[in-house]
Specification:
- By secondary structure, this protein is of the alpha+beta class.
- It has two domains: 204 residues, no CATH class; 211 residues, Glucose Permease (Domain IIA), CATH 2.70.70.
- The protein contains nine helices and 15 strands.
- The strands form four sheets. Strands 5, 6, 8, 9, 10, 12, 14 and 15 form an eight-stranded antiparallel β-sheet that branches.
Length: 465
Amino acid sequence: MQPTRTIHSYPDTTGRGRPVSVRPVSGRIPLSIALLSAGFASLGLSPAAAQVAASTPQTTAASSDAIKQREQELEAARAQQKSAAEAQEKLKSDIAAIGQDRSKLNQQLIDIAAQVRSVETRIGDAEARLRPLDSREQQIRSSLNSRRSEIVEVLAALQRAGRRTPPALLVRPEDALQSLRTAMLLGAVVPELRARAEKLTGDLTELVTLRKTIATERDRLAADRDKLGNDQARLAALVDERQRQQSTIEKDMAAESARAITLSQQVDTLQGLIAKMEQDLKSAAKAAVAADLQGAPAMLNGKPNLGALKDPARLSPAVAFASAKGLFALPVNGVKIRDFGGSDGAGGVEKGISLATRPGAQVTTPCDGWVVYAGPFRSYGQLLILNAGGGYHVLIAGMERISVNIGQFVLTGEPVATMGTMSQVASILATNASQPVLYVEFRKDGTPIDPGPWWAANEGEKVRG
């Protein structure tokens, strides 16, 4: 039983006053108020009308919480530092276990480089998914902020309606008429209020859902970025070990690299650079001779023997370049912004392709080959040239740092360079490209050719080391 309350008394026909007792009526409107108020409060959008009471903060409790939070942060930092130290020790141990076994080192390099590129892809996908979510969240927030006055009005009206008492049962004719008029007015207004309240509730519900989805995506993104950092650290250590072993074999590597840069300043064209390197530089000439002597790799049932790519100890191409059409992976994760034969923005045509990449992206080799040049060249920034055998050369430019040396034989999928934070290629800079761009060019007997037929159509068709 709900308690009764006396509203007022009216004189009856006998002249005696008699109180009229009524019961408060509950409805769905107060629930709407609660939903809206809770939604605004949880999202930091509470208008003044939705703020019923404010609690005074306890200074002592706040200080205690702050100290506890700092202690937790310090403990987390210590745990992270300990974990990093343990990972570094394990990495050193793993590299020591590899020792001078080049095949194991090569396989580790290829595997970790593939992991790095896979994580880069996941990060790019996550960022692409977050962009429309963030945009939609901002739209809803802007809409709610622009309707603050409406929110206040709706909440206030709902609160008044929720507190409104029913009319007295025994009243004068004038009061009855007024009650009827009020009821007619409320009958017209309440549906509109309900519709507006439901619209606001719908927006709040969508906003809450969006925030949960965004939080989940950001957690995944943070985990992938942590993994990328760990994988990149491991890859850098493996690359350093590979180059240390290579420098042990090639004692005069530093002198050769310096001579290569000197020779590169004496030519103006890429074809001239290739010819100069393979004729006048001892290590590049040795690599070119090796490429010519190897001949075409054996075929398996008239098709490229892809199984040979699984041998990390090979010292010559596993698949003949001419036979590898439709098998190569792009050397970096990115979006193609210029294609072979298109306009180069300077009145000429493109002789290769250009890929916009992430800053610091990992660059791997699309094929087996010998390094005949590695260093800066003219307007190409850092340039890497591979002799793939059979008269084919692969040119890759626009990186910030190259991690292989002239004369070195590299395997398909092996890490050879990293991108910087902006384009290093002058022709791309002229178009105001703000992100790093990798330029790739294939040549046959000195003439640029369309690399399109060599790229794999999908992930499953790419050759792997």
